[in-house]
Structures are given as structure tokens and as C-alpha cells.
Design brief:
The structure holds 2 protein chains of 2 kinds.
Chain A lengths: L2 H11 L4 E7 L8 H10 L5 E4 L10 H12 L4 H12 L7 E5 L1 H7 L1 H10 L4 E4 L8 H9 L3 E2 L1 E3 L5 H10 L4 E4 L12 H12 L6 E4 L5 H10 L2 E4 L1 H9 L5 H17 L4
Parallel strand pairs in A: 1-2, 1-9, 2-3, 3-4, 4-5, 6-7, 7-8, 8-9
Helix pairs in contact in A: 2-4, 2-12, 5-6, 9-10, 10-12, 11-12
Chain B lengths: L11 E2 L2 E5 L2 H17 L3 H15 L5 E3 L1 H7 L3 E6 L9 H14 L4 E6 L3 H13 L2 E7 H6 L1 H9 L3 E5 L6 H15 L3 E3 L10 H9 L1 H14 L5 E5 L4 H7 L9 E9 L17 E4 L1 E5 L25 H8 L3 E7 H15 L5 H15 L6 E6 L7 H7 L5
Parallel strand pairs in B: 4-14, 5-6, 5-8, 6-7, 9-10, 9-14, 10-13
Antiparallel strand pairs in B: 1-2, 2-12, 3-4, 11-12
The chains are: A alpha/beta, B alpha/beta.
Chain lengths: 268, 400
């Protein structure tokens, strides 16, 4: 059983839902990333989604674009991100780490070499935004051979037939993108999301995480009622962006505590 | 029998092309693929397209024998396919007319586009005005500054121009931003991509709409001189004018196809926009797999060319394929060589070529010298150079 799978299993045993914060590696500066990761765990992160900076983040809104740009000033690429995960693992062997990024940095290393290096760094899952299942069959196999979970996105516009295709390739969990649009956009329609999540569950036993549009305790709680995991990205990055060196870890801890309380209070 | 039948049904040209997009865009692309399949051979659609090309764009564009220039160069006879004479002054409009007609049939009242130098933006704004569609054009804020006259033209035509501040603030970032708009507004919006890049079906669809250039050329060369040229030469940024003229010639034996990339300050300086000639690694950007200018981390690097229309780090996937199967050859021309050809054509033929097209002209000049007087080169003169007079003046330290 992979670390992601056992984390979900344990949470389920306790009737809990997962809180998965997202940060972009290297934002605001590479020297903070590992400390930020430990802070997230200390204040309630069940898993961490770690963004790999890319020069052309087509699916991201302005908040995460700026995070990518801040990290790229310090040349934080995929190799540096894998090193950060290695450092994090020295003191945390429990918390699953899911890399989220775009295809080209992986292509630059080569899919097989990347899978080897991700395994060596003890990465648990990989989300590649612009690798739809039709284009990444062999990459998915390379990941699964090494017990790394390929996590796929599902959108409100994903046709039922494609849901079948995607759930057959995915492992670990499914990530339902709750909005049409880029990261950080607009508001959440929780009833619509609820219906979609229910229809996904008809097709798979994989846990379903929901992200895009979760900004505060209320939306986190509402989402935790219907999903197995709550992913918070742009809001987290906004807090990082608005912090200075001294307030950074404290501000992140405050937001995490608020979100964790909300997610835990959704217990049904 | 048709010898060349690319791409496959998922948009692959061998290992290139494909549909590398976020899940949020998959349905929109599926819809587009299905609708384009429905209309690409539909007689009524094609008749309307042909009618607009004739009466609105002014096609067919002539082929002109640049005799004085050929004599001056000394060697092969150089013929020019005059896409500069189209309405809006470049080949771009062939494609925007086609896609806008498709948008109308799909019931989308709003079109968006990315633009670098502004030519594709102007061509999109033009057809949007004619068809009564709302039009939003994304343009890197650096380009907005450099191409003020085209920004004003788009506004005159009723379009909204959105300056893009992210990344390198140029064409590739404008494309990113247009994609983001499309993901958000896909229910009422058609994205008119200007080149043979992007996810499937764009590389194929844009090629098909631009193929009118090559189809006319074949007929016109036969009528004018009773044979086809020894080589067809076109500049390549994303590569739409080159694909347009190459495509109908792919199955014609003994016609060399030569794509000319921008060598900028020289390939050895790294300041260029020539991924094919410089043997850049293969990667994934803007929805397709192709040769891509990037660093060791897979980050896309900034390109350089005196011509904004060639300033793109990737290249259409079909060009990558034609290079690999050796059906087309790719070379690169520096800023200085292109400028020399620009001035030479102005003075000898009374034609001001676009700086993009001047790259193709410069290579034709080089080649012609090595050939005999009875050999024929056909250059796609993809646009006129009026838009470039500020750039040219600045290079000569002249204030207009």
C-alpha cells in the first residue's frame, strides 16, 4: 500500500477527511520551503501538494503564476524541488508528498529518469497538469512500477466516458477541479460539486479530493462534507505572498489551524 | 492514392503534436475537433470560405517574377507569392476567416486571440468586426509598447486589447493568457489560434486554412512557366505561412521545401528563435510536443529576433515532423542578413516586405547565387513591411 493510500485508510478509520495544502516550491525563497512544509504538517496537513515552478503555467491564475515567478528568480526547477523533498524526508517519513506541475520539466529529464529520481527522493504522487491520460500511458506505468501514485484531475466538463478512462489510469486519489477556469478563480458552487463527486464515486472506490475555489473555513468545511480531501492552493499562496520573513511561518500556521478545525468539524 | 496523411486522429505527427492540455480544456477541444471534422469537407462551408477569400481578402494573391532582383542576385529566377497583397497585409487573414466562420457555425458570439507583432490580432479583429463577433486580443505588454500602430488598428476595429504582464510579456505569455480565458469562458468563446501550434486540432486546422497559398501556387506556376519551382522557401516562427505553402507540395517530387528560422544575433550567441536549426530538445508547450528552446530544467527560454512574428520558442509540430522525415529542410537567417534582403527588395522591386518574410528572401538570395539562371525559386512573401517601418527606422537611428 502506498503512503497516500494508507493515509486515506487511516483517516477513514477515524472518520476524518484529508486536508491538503498546496505551496509552490521555492516561494517566496527556496530557503523557506522545507520549513514551510514542516509547518504545514505541524498544523494539520495530512499530505502536501508541492508545486514545481514552470515558466509557462497555463492552467494557473495570477496568484500561483506569481509564486512560480518568485521561485524561478532563484532558478528553482524540478531537480531543486526533488532535493527539497529529500531534505524534508530526513525528519518526516510519514507525510505523503504530491508533486504538481507541468509536463515539460519532466520531459526535459526524461519520464523514466524522472520516475527514478522521484522514487529516490521518496515522492508519493505526481500530478502533471498537461499530461491527459491519452498522452501519458507509459509515464503512468513507470510511476506505478515504483509505487508512485499518478493523480489525475477531473473537471466539471469531463464527460462520463472520460471519467472511466481517467479512473482506470489513476491511483492514490482523484482530484476534482471544482471550477471552470484557472486556479484561484471565482466562487464555489458546493451543490454542483456535490453532485459531480457523487457521480464520480459511482465509478470508482478511489478517494476523491476537491480543489479550486476553497478559500476559508466555511468553504473548507462544506467541501469536507462531500469529499475525501480538501485541497487549498491559491489562498495558501496568497498568505505566503502577503507575509514577510518574520511573519511567514506564523501566518501559514494560523491559516492551517483555521482550515484544519473546519475540515475536522465536518465529521458526519 | 494520397501519400501523405497526417496527423493521426489524435493530432500526432509521429512523436510530435498531440493534445497536452489540462483536463479543463479537453471538452472544448473535443467539441472543436468534432465540429471541424463536420465542416472541413462541407460544400456549403467551403463555398462560404472561398467566397470570403475572394471578395473580402482579395484572393487569389498573384505570383510575381522578381526579375530585376533575380538579375541583381545573379542565378536562379526568384518568384514571389504575394500574400502581402491580402486584406490586412499578410497571410494571417486566410486562417482567421476560416476559424471565424467556424465560430459562427458553433454559435460562439465571442472570439479571442493571441498576438505577437499584432498581425494575427488585426486579422482576427477584422473578421470579428465583419461577422459581428465580440473580440478580445491578448498581447504581451512588451509587444503592446513595440507595436503601437497595430494596437490602435485593433481598437479601431472594435476589439479589446489586453496587455499581458506575466512571464516574458511576449507572444508565448499572450498565448498562455488566451488559454486561461478560454478555459474560463469556453461556453461562449472560440479561441482563434494564429499559427500551426497549440493542441490538436489547431495545427491541422490552421494548416488547412492556410493551404490555399500552396494550392494557388501550384496552379499559378503551371500557368506562368509550365512547371513547378525547384524549391519553395518560407519563413518559420510558429510556421503557418510555411505550412500553408508547403502542404500542397509535400507529395510533389523534386520540389525542395525550405523553412527559414530567425537566427537573431547568430545561433552561436544563443540569442535566436531557431529551435529546429539549433537542434533544440523536444518538449511540451502550448498543448503539443515539438522542438523547444529551453534550459536544462525544462523552463522555456527567451527568444530573440528583429521580427516579432518569428519570436517564438517552439515551432508547429508538423514542421518538427517534416524535419525528422527529411521532407523539408530548415535553415536560419540572422537579423542583419534579413535586414539586407529587406532593403534590397525595397530598392529593386518596389516592394516593402515584412521583416519575417525578409528572412525567407535572404535565404533565397543565398541559394539563388549557387544556382543556374533556368532554375526557379518560389518565396512566400507572407506579409508587407509597413508595420515594420518603426523598427527599421530605429535600427538606422532615425526618429519618425
Amino acid at each position: 500500500m502506498s503512503r497516500i493510500q494508507s493515509t486515506f485508510a487511516q483517516l477513514k478509520q477515524h472518520g476524518k477527511k484529508a486536508l491538503i495544502p498546496y505551496i509552490t516550491a521555492g516561494d517566496p525563497h527556496p530557503k523557506y520551503t522545507v520549513d514551510l512544509m514542516h509547518t504545514l504538517v505541524k498544523h494539520g496537513a495530512d499530505m502536501i501538494e508541492l508545486g514545481v515552478p514552470f515558466s509557462d503555467p497555463m492552467a494557473d491564475g495570477p496568484v500561483i503564476q506569481r509564486a512560480s515567478e518568485r521561485a524561478l528568480v532563484h532558478k528553482v526547477g524540478l531537480t531543486a524541488v526533488l532535493d527539497m523533498v529529500k531534505t524534508f524526508r530526513k525528519t518526516d517519513q510519514q507525510t505523503p508528498i504530491i508533486l504538481m506541475g507541468y509536463a515539460n520539466p519532466i520531459e526535459a529529464i526524461g519520464p523514466v529518469a524522472f520516475a527514478d529520481r522521484a522514487k529516490a527522493a521518496d515522492v508519493d504522487g505526481v500530478i502533471t497538469v498537461d499530461y491527459p491520460p491519452e498522452e501519458c500511458g507509459s509515464f503512468v506505468q513507470e510511476l506505478r512500477k515504483r509505487d508512485i501514485d499518478p493523480v489525475f484531475l477531473l473537471a466539471p466538463t469531463t464527460e462520463p466516458k472520460r471519467v472511466d478512462l481517467i479512473v482506470n489510469q489513476a491511483s492514490g486519489f482523484l482530484y476534482y477541479v471544482s471550477l471552470k477556469g484557472v486556479t484561484g478563480a471565482a466562487n464555489l458552487d458546493i451543490e454542483e460539486v456535490s453532485k459531480r463527486v457523487a457521480s464520480i464515486r459511482e465509478k470508482t472506490n478511489l478517494p476523491v479530493g476537491v480543489g479550486f475555489g476553497i478559500r476559508d473555513a466555511a468553504t473548507a468545511k462544506a467541501t469536507a462534507k462531500i469529499a475525501d480531501a480538501v485541497v487549498v492552493g491559491s489562498r495558501m499562496v496568497q498568505v505566503i505572498e502577503a507575509s514577510n520573513e518574520d511573519s511567514l511561518l506564523q501566518n501559514v500556521a494560523t491559516l492551517m489551524t483555521e482550515l484544519k478545525t473546519a475540515v475536522d468539524s465536518a465529521n458526519s | 492514392m494520397q501519400l501523405y496523411d497526417m496527423p493521426d486522429e489524435r493530432g500526432h505527427f509521429g512523436q510530435f503534436g498531440g493534445t497536452f492540455v489540462a483536463e479543463t480544456l479537453v471538452e472544448a477541444l473535443d467539441e472543436l475537433r468534432v465540429m471541424y471534422e463536420r465542416y472541413r469537407h462541407d460544400p456549403e462551408f467551403l463555398a462560404e470560405y472561398a467566397h470570403d477569400l475572394k471578395h473580402f481578402v482579395g484572393r487569389p494573391s498573384p505570383i510575381y517574377h522578381a526579375k530585376r532582383w533575380s538579375d541583381k542576385v545573379g542565378g536562379a529566377q526568384i518568384y514571389l507569392k504575394r500574400e502581402d497583397l491580402n486584406h490586412t497585409g499578410a497571410h494571417k487573414v486566410n486562417n482567421t476567416v476560416g476559424q471565424a466562420l467556424l465560430a459562427k457555425r458553433m454559435g460562439k458570439p465571442r472570439v479571442i486571440a493571441e498576438t505577437g507583432a499584432g498581425q494575427h490580432g488585426v486579422a482576427t479583429a477584422t473578421i470579428a468586426a465583419r461577422l459581428g463577433l465580440e473580440c478580445v486580443v491578448y498581447m504581451g505588454s512588451e509587444d503592446v509598447k513595440r507595436q503601437a500602430p497595430n494596437v490602435f488598428r485593433m481598437k479601431l476595429l472594435g476589439a479589446t486589447v489586453v496587455p499581458v504582464e506575466s512571464g516574458s510579456k511576449t507572444l508565448k505569455d499572450a498565448l498562455n493568457e488566451a488559454m486561461r480565458d478560454w478555459v474560463t469562458n469556453v461556453h461562449n468563446t472560440f479561441y482563434i489560434i494564429g499559427t500551426v501550434a497549440g493542441p490538436h486540432p489547431y495545427p491541422m486546422m490552421v494548416r488547412d486554412f492556410q493551404a490555399v497559398i500552396g494550392i494557388e501556387s501550384k496552379q499559378q506556376m503551371q500557368e506562368m512557366i509550365g512547371r513547378q519551382p525547384d524549391a519553395v522557401i518560407a519563413c518559420v516562427g510558429g510556421g503557418s505561412n510555411a505550412m500553408g505553402i508547403f502542404y500542397p507540395y509535400i507529395d510533389v517530387p523534386n520540389v525542395r521545401l525550405i523553412g527559414v528560422e530567425a537566427a537573431g544575433h547568430g545561433l552561436e550567441t544563443g540569442m535566436h528563435a531557431a529551435p529546429l536549426t539549433a537542434n533544440s530538445p523536444i518538449g511540451v508547450l502550448h498543448g503539443n510536443r515539438t522542438y523547444l528552446m529551453q534550459d536544462a530544467d525544462g523552463q522555456i527560454i527567451e527568444t530573440h529576433s528583429v521580427s516579432a512574428g518569428l519570436d517564438y520558442p517552439g515551432v508547429g509540430p508538423e514542421h518538427a515532423w517534416l524535419k525528422d522525415i527529411k521532407r523539408a529542410e530548415y535553415v536560419a537567417i540572422t537579423d542583419d542578413e534579413a535586414m539586407a534582403a529587406f532593403h534590397s527588395l525595397c530598392r529593386t522591386e518596389g516592394i516593402i516586405p515584412a521583416l519575417e518574410s525578409s528572412h525567407a528572401l535572404a535565404h533565397a538570395e543565398k541559394m539563388a547565387r549557387t544556382m543556374s539562371k533556368d532554375q526557379i525559386l518560389l518565396v512566400n512573401l507572407s506579409g508587407r513591411g509597413d508595420k515594420d517601418i518603426n523598427t527599421v527606422a530605429k535600427l538606422a537611428n532615425i526618429t519618425l
